[in-house]
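REQUEST FORM: STRUCTURE PREDICTION
Request ID: SP-0412
Submitted by: Lab K.M.
Chain count: 1
Length (residues): 84
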Amino acid sequence: MITFEVSDMTCGHCASTITKALKDSDPAARVSIDVAAHRVQVEPAKADEAELIEAIKDAGYTPVVIAQPAEAVEGAGKKGCCCG
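STATUS: Completed
RESULT:
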């Protein structure tokens, strides 16, 4: 999952435009948008981060990648005990 902050996304029309741009770049991508938080989450099927950034920029917006917390990345595959 790649998360972007898009501070110049302000309404449903903006969200629709960004979703269309991302789907044009990667039709099978899963896109989730929270307009109030200015967050766009993408689970790409084939596009890489750079392609997604370009798609959002080409749509007229300014995406900033939000780094995932280290704990979330390290513990992503673990279940149960913290000792693995």
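NOTES: The chain is about 35% helix and 20% strand.
Reviewed by: T.R.
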